[in-house]
Amino acid sequence: MTRYQLAEVGALLAEPARAAMLLALSDGTARPAGELARVAGVGAATASAHLKRLLDGGLLALHAQGRHRYYRLADDEVSAMLEALAMPRVRTAVPTPAGDPAVRRARSCYRHLAGQLGVAFCESLLAHDYLEAASEGLRLLPAGAAALAGAGLEPETAHRLLHLHGRGCLDWTERRLHVGGPLGVAMTSAMLDAGWLRRATQGRALVPSADGLRRLAGLGVRLDRPA
Questions:
Q1: CA–CA gap between residue 89 and residue 62 (Å, rounded)
Q2: Number of domains in the chain
Q3: Which UniProt keywords apply (predicted)?
């Protein structure tokens, strides 16, 4: 990235309405222009101009379905950038982040599992040699796929995970890594399909089920229950 490209990205993020649109899409959803206009508190014409700038700047992608047009983040690299910018910059001891405890406990970070549960999941997989940090990023090992299948994921689903690459995504509340990239997205999708997690009715929080916590505990993942 050149200094001019960096300056352009900064200009795109500096406008509050555009920032609101990007944050609304950071849960991995695709939304129509009208909904994003309401989120940003602007009219349809203004929203259209903002969305065009975000598309031209490479931060958004457009999905057309018939006459309907839906906007989403361009990729998980954009989501990672937003997560990193959301992390408070401090020079002294890091305070406990404020905000919704459910979001800190478990949430979606552009469709992959983040928060305390996401960090604990990543660290447990690494500690048990189910996941390795390779030159191309994070990679699930055959023992990891077998462990996930043994914990209750569909064996075919667990096997497909072996062919996906992940990356360490720095968690903005925990300051440690969770699994991002295609591998992180696929693992989170599998846990949602299996009922280990469910999406909250609003926002980015992911709610682990009692059965999901039990199965994750079998993989060495520990998450204290909320008070």
A1: 32
A2: 2
A3: DNA-binding
pTM for the structure as a whole: 0.66
* Residue 227 domain-assigned (yes or no): no
Residue 197 dihedral angles phi and psi, to the nearest 5°: -130, 155
In a domain, 83, yes or no: no
Mark whether 108 and 211 lie in a shared domain: yes
Do 50 and 137 fall into the same domain? no
Specify whether 103 is located in the same domain as 214: yes
Backbone angles phi, psi at 152, to 5 degrees: 130, -5
At residue 89 the predicted structure's pLDDT band, cuts being 50, 70 and 90, is: very low
State the Cα angle at 163 between 211 and 159, rounded to 5°.
40
- The pLDDT mean for the chain works out to 86
Of 78, 68, 74, the C-alpha closest to 33 is: 68
Which of 65, 20, 68, 72 is CA-nearest to residue 46? 20
Cα torsion for 205, 209, 215, 219, to the nearest 10°? 20
Q: What is the pLDDT of residue 65?
A: 77
Provide the 10 A C-beta neighbour count for residue 138: 23
